[in-house]
Design brief:
The chain is of the alpha+beta class and 111 residues long. Helices cover 32% and strands 21% of the residues. The chain has one domain. Strand 2 and strand 3 form a beta hairpin. It is elongated and about 45 Å long.
Length: 111
């Protein structure tokens, strides 16, 4: 565990120890493994952020915000890219509601 102001230092230290072509995956999940968010990092820094969930546990994609990695969780405020992403994903989720009859997975894909 580390504080938010230590993210860059911790990531740099961890990534400095990667094997050539290596990747660091850093993230968090809920206590029973239904909701996950992780960042994949290479030596150059963050590459991707992944949102994974047991779809039946969500009302909307922004429910995953509580599991954002430390580098992102305090940036989930208006004006920040992660906030805009989750807001737009919620809107797409709502627009994809007709797919709900085909299952949550199809709705997630459509959103």
């Amino acid at each position: 565990q580390y504080d938010e102001d230590q993210v860059a230092e911790v990531w740099a230290r961890l990534c400095s120890r990667l094997a050539p072509g290596g990747l660091l995956v850093e993230g968090t999940c809920d206590e029973i493994g239904r909701r996950h968010v992780w960042v994949a990092l290479g030596p150059e820094g963050p590459r991707t952020v992944t949102f994974a969930t047991r779809l039946g546990s969500l009302e909307r994609p922004s429910d995953l915000a509580e599991r954002l990695p430390k580098a992102l969780i305090h940036r989930n405020v208006p004006g920040e890219p992660v906030h805009a992403f989750l807001r737009d994903f919620d809107r797409a989720w709502a627009a994809a509601s007709p797919y709900a009859s085909l299952g949550a997975r199809q709705r997630w894909i459509a959103a």
